[in-house]
Each structure stands twice: as structure tokens, then as C-alpha cells.
TrEMBL record:
SUPFAM superfamilies membership: ALDH-like
Pfam families: Aldedh
Ranges of residues in domain Aldehyde dehydrogenase: 3-455
Identification of the protein by name: Succinate-semialdehyde dehydrogenase [NADP(+)] 1
Classification via PANTHER family: SUCCINATE SEMIALDEHYDE DEHYDROGENASE [NAD(P)+] SAD
Gene behind this protein: gabD1
Superkingdom per UniProt: Bacteria
Length: 458
């Protein structure tokens, strides 16, 4: 894929960017390595001052950042605006809490191990490569960059090829905020250059958010090199609705959960599993709301669903829906691409899904909801867990026994009861099964790229 800004609402190429050559990549890695030798010894107060300055820039330039995101990947301007402010919030969170999260830890009763003192100290690992996706082109990067920089690491960003302006903007923000040159660098490169960077001994770890295929590749290379990785991969999150649920809230949240970011979110609810007692009422309201959503120009304030980010992305969604319908599923709304320019796909609800359909097992990365009727909580859990993914999950019930059952038995890194799965700086984020491993955000996220050094003092 060319490194280019292509407006997904029109399909028009706005700007192309040259790929860094091998010598330029080598130079940037060298700069990062040299910078880490000094940056690792800076104090938390100094790092926090720069991080808060970066947050100030995001808040001051929120309209600039939002326009970049909407232009490059098609999210609505309102959603892009919120994403930019969320970045500022995440930066302030780590500026405020990094010293606390990485404070020395007493490890044991010192006398039990024959020591005067026994403690653990968190120290930064070094140069970390972040391979990041286009769907949250600034927030996803910030989930890595804010904790990594506050811990004393330095970052190299290999961003998705369709959001180069966002990548360069992020690098520029950190530079203007006062971080030393080389602390955070964007690498405008194709995926074919990633392996050589991962195998460079100066790059000590990697984090990736993206497809399962990309995650397997990066994890395999880093495994061969014995380098630490964090993987946040795909998701096919269940959204379970039981009879005791507040149906009005559940429907409104279900719509928002499915079409957030134009349906292109790993933690978007994708499979709606509804108890038979409320299935008809839920379906009627849900389909009506999905059918009524306004699809259009992401810069139009009235737009609720913009285009998909890439032409291939739309083709992938279309292929999964067409496969299901050809095999006997029914589209209750949507299901056909509109005429005209841009990579739009309508909000779609499909039912009558069987296990031999691809949509049963694969992630649909667009505004398509799969709807299932179940007889009881046992069947709900069976379908919810009948996936290779395990990122987020949602369960709607006011029955406390059912709530505890979902918390215990949903195979996921996150369970949200009577709410929509989302990411907060304050909560750890990550999945199980083929949704990846490791955690971002909260204290867990900043510790991922630290060495917990055991210290024994006699």
C-alpha cells in the first residue's frame, strides 16, 4: 500500500509521501538509541512537564487534529474531536500518575531472604517499536506513547500507511512540547521494513494493534529475537441482552456500540445475543434505529456514520455479508453498498446466521450487526464464547446472579455490565485468546515496557 492520504469519502488521493530508505531508517534508530541513553535518566517531573505541554497542544489544536483524522480515515468530525481530547486526557493521566505507578516496591519481608532490604524497581527497557492502526490514529498511538515516554522509554512509530499526516502530527506535537529530539519518531515506511527493525538489537521491544495476521508476524519475529511484545488484535465482541435489562438503554447503547467509528473498532459490539423473551421488542427498535442513521460526509455535523477507511475494507465487509445472505441469512436493513463515490457501507443488521457462515467466526470491521435469538443464559454464553476472539464483552441484565455469571464465564479481557465497552486511561485494556496478550493503560500499561529489577541489599 502506498503511503498516502486518500479521502475515503471521495476516494481522492490528497497527498503521497516518500518511504524512508534504509539509510534514513538506520539513522532514526541510531538517534533513538542515543537519546535513550540520556532520556532514561531524566526525572518524572521533567517528563511530566513535557507531557502536560503536549496535552495543552492537543487541547489548543483540537480542531486541527480532528480534521486530520476525519480526512485520512473518515471518522465523523465529532468523533475525531472527542478522540483528540481523549489523547490529552490520557497524557495528563500518565503525567500525574507515572511516578506512583513506577515507585519502588517492597518485595518481601527482608529478613526472610536474609537481606537488610528487598525491593523491586521499575526501569525503562529502551527503544520500543509501535506498529499502529488507522482506526484510532491518535488515541491508539497515545495509549502506547504516553506511558512509554513517562516510563523513560523512547518510541518509534510505524503507523498505518493511510494516516501519514496523523503520524507526522504526533511526532511534531511531542517535539514542540519539549521532549528531547529522538524521543518519539514517526517512520513513514511500508510493512516490509518492519522485520529488519524488529531484528535490530537496538530495538528492544514492540507493541502492535491490528489484525491477527499482523500480530502473528510481529510476535513470531520478536519471539525469535526474544523481545517483549504487547498485542492488541481483533475482536468480535458479544452484546448480550437478558429479560431484566432496561431495553430502551440497551437498544440505544447497542446502536452506538455497533456504529462507533463507522463500525471500525476492535471493541465495537458485533454480535447481538438476545433472549427470546425480549428478542422481538429489541429487534424492532434496534433495526429501526440502525435503518434511520444518517450516512454521509464525515465533516457534516448531521452525519452519524461516515465511510469505511479503505476501499479494501469495504470490500471485506461486503464479502462477509454477501456470503451470509447467499447461505440463507437475512438482512433486516442495509446489506447493499450505495452508488456514488467514496467507500460507504450502510448500517446493516443480519439474522438467521448459522455456524457454517464466515460471519459467525470472522470479525466484521464495519457497521454490520449479527443478531442471535437465545433461549436462556446458557445458550447466550455458549454463542458469546464461540469465537476465537476475546477482547471485550457487554451484558445487559439487572439480575445480580446473572451479572455474576457473565463476569465469571464470558471469555474476554473486559466485561461491561449494562454499559458499552470502551477504553479509559484509568482501566487496563487487553484481550485473551486470539485478541492478543499484555495490557495497555492504567498502571499495568506503563509497566509493560519496564524491567522489574529485583534488588537484594545485605
Amino acid at each position: 500500500m502506498a503511503i498516502a492520504t486518500i479521502n475515503p469519502a471521495t476516494g481522492t488521493t490528497v497527498e503521497t509521501f516518500p518511504e524512508l530508505n534504509d539509510a534514513e531508517v538506520e539513522q532514526k534508530i541510531g538517534i533513538a538509541c542515543e537519546r535513550w541513553r540520556t532520556y532514561r535518566n531524566t526525572g518524572f517531573d521533567e517528563r511530566a512537564e513535557c507531557m502536560r505541554a503536549a496535552a495543552d497542544l492537543f487541547e489548543k489544536e483540537v480542531d486541527v487534529a480532528a480534521q486530520l483524522m476525519s480526512t485520512e480515515m473518515g471518522k465523523t468530525l465529532a468523533a475525531a474531536h472527542d478522540e483528540a481530547l481523549k489523547c490529552a486526557h490520557g497524557m495528563r493521566y500518565y503525567a500525574d500518575h507515572a511516578a506512583e505507578f513506577l515507585a519502588d516496591e517492597p518485595l518481601a519481608d527482608a529478613s526472610a531472604v536474609g537481606a537488610r532490604r528487598a525491593l523491586g524497581r521499575y526501569q525503562p527497557l529502551g527503544v520500543v517499536l509501535a506498529v499502529m492502526p488507522w482506526n484510532f490514529p491518535m488515541w491508539q498511538v497515545m495509549r502506547f506513547a504516553a506511558p512509554a515516554l513517562m516510563a523513560g522509554n523512547v518510541g518509534l512509530l510505524k503507523h498505518a500507511s493511510n494516516v501519514p499526516r496523523c503520524a507526522l502530527y504526533l511526532e511534531d506535537v511531542f517535539r514542540r512540547a519539549g521532549f528531547p529530539e529522538g524521543c518519539f519518531q514517526a517512520l513513514l515506511i511500508s510493512s516490509r521494513k518492519v522485520e529488519s527493525i524488529l531484528r535490530d538489537p537496538r530495538v528492544v521491544a514492540a507493541t502492535l494493534t491490528g489484525s491477527e495476521l499482523a500480530g502473528r508476524s510481529v510476535a513470531a519475529i520478536c519471539g525469535d529475537e526474544v523481545k517483549h511484545t504487547v498485542m492488541e488484535l481483533g475482536g468480535s465482541d458479544p452484546f448480550v441482552v437478558m429479560p431484566s435489562a432496561d431495553l430502551d438503554r440497551a437498544v440505544e447503547t447497542a446502536v452506538a456500540a455497533r456504529v462507533q467509528n463507522n463500525g471500525q473498532s476492535c471493541i465495537a459490539a458485533k454480535r447481538f445475543i438476545v433472549h427470546a423473551d425480549v428478542y422481538d421488542a429489541f429487534t424492532e427498535r434496534f433495526v429501526s434505529r440502525m435503518r434511520g442513521l444518517k450516512v454521509g460526509d464525515p465533516f457534516d455535523p448531521a452525519t452519524e456514520v461516515g465511510p469505511l477507511a479503505t476501499e479494501q475494507g469495504r470490500a471485506d465487509v461486503e464479502e462477509l455479508v454477501d456470503d451470509a445472505i447467499a447461505a440463507g441469512a437475512t438482512a433486516l436493513c442495509g446489506g447493499r453498498r450505495p452508488d456514488g463515490p467514496g467507500w460507504f457501507y450502510p448500517p446493516t443488521v443480519i439474522t438467521g446466521i448459522t455456524r457454517d457462515m464466515r460471519v459467525f467466526a470472522e470479525e466484521v470491521f464495519g457497521p454490520v450487526a449479527s443478531l442471535y435469538r437465545v433461549a436462556d443464559i446458557e445458550e447466550a454464553l455458549e454463542i458469546a464464547n464461540a469465537t476465537s476472539f476475546g477482547l471485550g464483552s457487554n451484558a445487559w441484565t439487572n439480575d445480580e446472579t446473572e451479572q455474576e455469571r457473565f463476569i465469571a464465564d464470558l471469555d474476554a479481557g473486559q466485561v461491561f455490565i449494562n454499559g458499552r465497552t470502551t477504553s479509559y486511561p484509568e482501566l487496563p485494556f487487553g484481550g485473551v485468546k486470539r485478541s492478543g496478550y499484555g495490557r495497555e493503560l492504567a498502571a499495568h500499561g506503563i509497566r509493560e515496557f519496564c524491567n522489574l529489577k529485583t534488588i537484594w541489599m545485605g
